[in-house]
Design goal:
disordered N terminus, binds 1-deoxynojirimycin, 17 strands
Length: about 575
Amino acid sequence: MLPQSMLRTCHLLVLMLCVSAIEDFDWTKNDHGSFYYGVFPTGFSWGAGGSAYQTEGAWNVDGKGMSIWDAFAHKKGKIFLNDTGDFSCEGYHKVKDDISLMKDMNLKHYRFSISWPRILPTGIKNENINEKGIRYYDDLINKLLENKITPIVTLYHWDLPQILEEKYRGWQNASMVNLFNDFANLCFERFGNRVRHWITFNNPWSIAVEGYETGEHAPGLKLRGVGAYKAAHHIIKAHAKVWHTYDTQWRNKQKGLVGISLSGDWGEPVDISNQRDIEAAERYVQFYMGWFATPLFNGDYPQVMKDYIGRKSAQQGLGASRLPVFTAQEKSYIRGTCDFLGIGHFTTRYITQKNYPSGRGNSYFTDRDLAELVDPRWPDPGSEWLYSVPWGFRRLLNFVKKQYGNPMIYVTENGVSEKMMCTDLCDDWRMQYFKDYINEMLKAIKDGVNIKAYTAWSLLDKFEWDEGYSERFGLYYVDFRDKNKPRYPKASVQYYKSIISSNGFPNQRELESWKGKAIETCSSSNQLLAADPLISHMGMVTEIVVPTMCTLSILLSAVFLMFLLRRRL
Ligand code: NOJ
């Protein structure tokens, strides 16, 4: 997600001095270590989520077209171990099974995405509508509703039809705005009588930065300093257009809501008494979530982005800023196009001021003039970028309340991963993460933040983009080596169930019993998995046998070489 080399270097810097001095908001009456017992407002919605390319599999089944992720993952060297989402969790064939897992957890909502090329194989509405693809989503929506689970539907979770990438260069091209609007309109037409919650884009920051700046994600373009801003510009316009389409053509009849899901790490100043660090941390958040939220709520990019990118572009001798400009008409068209704000949040960074002279080449990252740091004491059980820093969540939520006029918030993603080889279903670290992050969300509600729903990310272990299957975010463990992709509950399933059934954290006594109860559920299935000879062998092969064999062969070759040399002498 972030430049790893930069993070790794910074990793080494321990930030003792700030950790004890971070409580600066007056709305945080509890210090950040304390636990808050209490329950959520009645009607609060608990759910879990996933996305099409990450879970469906069935990449070329029933008339589906290719997406940029199909194409990207099929190229060698793009994805960890060259894995693909071709089969993934086989969610396409397991709708009934997965809904019974949700039902068992008492979920009130399930967040999933519609694959654009599954229903429009050429990406274009007038060309070919794939009725089999429509039927799949019809069935999923109907079954969810039969089980009293509300569908929250994302229209774009990164899987652009490949043909649109080839013809137009995807989000680099303004024509994507109308094409996406046509696709969205089709979804409103076919599914809108049953779906009330629409998310236009999932995490546009990733689409722009990882797809068009660093190239770590599909379509893999490295248009540094320009490509991400351009993609974001078209995405924001596309979002606004879809919101207006819904508003004028469907809202009266369908009575639904259209929002967007933005991701955002929290950025905390390294030294809270240093104005330059305070401003750098603010910039970090503005360049991240603010890049998209500010236009949608206020009509234009954050002032600090316009200033920094504009100044650097001028220093580079460019005639105009690399950050595109909205016309006055566009600004008023875009402003106010969010019925709710979806927030995907996982982690936090410490931020300090750092100058990047414009001569050093331009990029989104150097435009911000800051450095990111982490506290090595923060737990990081899985993904390299994901440190558990629960208090950052409360801060981000309060920031959103203050900056954007207390919008209605749906938490659309929050969770933690473990490593691929981890077959331990007793996932202590996930129970702790959920407990602490959900508790900070409860504190934020007490602060007056208007949060309506929480989506645990994710229901299942699944394809994790460029990381392949090496990071497991699921409440359910998926055995990817088995063709049937069986699901096994981790202990956190039971733990999350307890939170859901109590609608929060009623009291200390009750809470103390939850973990024991959860661990009981995982120990028997855990033994089952641990006894799986293939899994334990694979673990042994990669972790012990391979390194030992390598060392032995190096040693043997050295001995053999010495023997040969001696004979020559
Ligand atoms: C955000 C993405 O939206 C989601 O698809 C992914 O699984 C999580 N980050 C974790 O990497």
